[in-house]
Amino acid sequence: MSGNEAVLTVRGLNVDYGTGDGAVHALRDVDLTLHRGEVLGLAGESGCGKSTLAYAVTRLLPPPGVITGGEVHYHRQGGGALDLLALSAAELRAFRWQELSIVFQGAMNSLNPVHTVHSQLTDVLRAHRPELKRPERTARARELLELVGISADRLPAYPHQLSGGMRQRVMIAMALALEPEIVIMDEPTTALDVVMQRQILRQLVRLREELGFSVVFITHDISLLIEFSDRIAIMYGGRIVEEAAASSIYRDPRHPYSDGLLHSFPALHGARRELTGIPGSPPHLSAMPAGCAFHPRCGRALDVCATHVPVLAAPDDADPRTVACWLHGQAPAMTSRS
Ligand SMILES: Nc1ncnc2c1ncn2[C@@H]1O[C@H](COP(=O)(O)OP(=O)(O)OP(=O)(O)O)[C@@H](O)[C@H]1O
């Protein structure tokens, strides 16, 4: 489904929480490309900056978060790039929902309990598609519900009359109401049971194939990411440390952190992996180690890892992936520290 045409590009993005001496750097020089029609998974332990990236890209970063550098561009089909960091508040309002929508963790709880599903779905349409007449809005709302696997008969229901999975589907229907080009899903199914999670994600991937939107998919669950993403970017300490096709990351993770993450979760398919986990815990943003932030936990660290930050670069072979690791073709021969 995915091609090579970029729909969203993030370059050198930096985000701090707070200012001055007390500022903590939550994102550091993040480069990321979302291609048209693909599902791009973002992985990494809690606190590595996945949500900060989603919020920064959509300009929804809550204070004290500030974007301190970098660029985010949205590329319209057929040409023309929109600088998202330069949009005015009014332009942003039009851009969100219309071109890009977001489903956050627990989004189902943001449905208004005193309004029916019908009124909440048609509200989005009324605000953004004023040309639609009332019966057209209702017809579209019915269509949207069916799209996410809920019978259109449930349109008059109030949120409390629906299960958690159904409410989350309603939020997904709402996110798709205006046929956006990009849907950002931050832990969209984490509050649901495993069977429901897979059901919803399967439906989403099918819809993506039908409607052609692109998805940024954020979850703690690496096995879900491998199953549903085309490509995966792995984050550590506010940086992207590896980015490649989901199948390449699964078969052959190059960054020792990616390897550790994959060995922290049981595989759902294929050969069993030994679960070794990752020693230690992620660094505090206020006390980030020098050099590669992962080096204190890395069993393969070299001397250079403690002093110099490796940049995200393509390894020597032809595999279309990038890795930020001194073990992969960046460093002159160094001796292992172990
Ligand atoms: N309001 C804030 N003030 C200070 N630091 C913050 C604030 N919000 C987030 N952070 C810090 O920014 C870092 C990135 O947080 P973020 O929520 O983006 O991580 P995450 O990878 O999405 O984590 P999780 O998977 O737990 O949601 C964390 O270390 C967090 O403590």
Structural description of this entry:
Keywords: ATP-binding, Nucleotide-binding, Transport. Residues 10-262 form the ABC transporter domain. Belongs to the ABC transporter superfamily. One of its GO terms (molecular function) is ATP binding. The chain is α/β, with parallel strands linked by helices and 338 residues long. It folds into two domains: 1-99 and 180-276, Rossmann fold; 111-179, no CATH class. 28% of the residues lie in helices and 21% in strands. The protein contains nine helices and eleven strands. The protein has helices spanning 50-57, 89-98, 117-128, 134-147, 164-176, 194-211, 222-228, 246-251, 256-262, and strands at 6-17, 24-35, 39-43, 65-75, 81-83, 100-103, 182-186, 214-218, 231-236, 239-245, 322-323. The strands form two sheets. The protein has a seven-stranded mixed sheet, sandwiched between helices. A four-stranded antiparallel sheet has the order 2-1-4-5, covered by helices on one side. Helix 3 (117-128) packs across helix 4. The longest helix has 18 residues, at 194-211. The radius of gyration is 21 Å and the shape is globular. The protein binds adenosine-5'-triphosphate.
Distance between the termini: 44 Å
Number of strands: 11
Ligands: adenosine-5'-triphosphate
How much of the residues is beta strand, in percent? 15-25%
Q: What's the arrangement of strands in the largest beta sheet?
A: 6-7-8-3-9-10-11
The low-pLDDT segments are 331-338
What is the overall number of helices? 9
Count structural domains: 2
The third-level CATH topology of the largest domain is: Rossmann fold
CATH hierarchy class name of the largest domain? Alpha Beta
User: How are helices and strands ordered from N to C?
Assistant: EEEHEEHEHHHEHEHEEHHE
Helical fraction equals 25-40%
Keywords: ATP-binding, Nucleotide-binding, Transport
Family: Belongs to the ABC transporter superfamily.
Protein name: Peptide/nickel transport system ATP-binding protein
GO molecular function: ATP binding; ATP hydrolysis activity
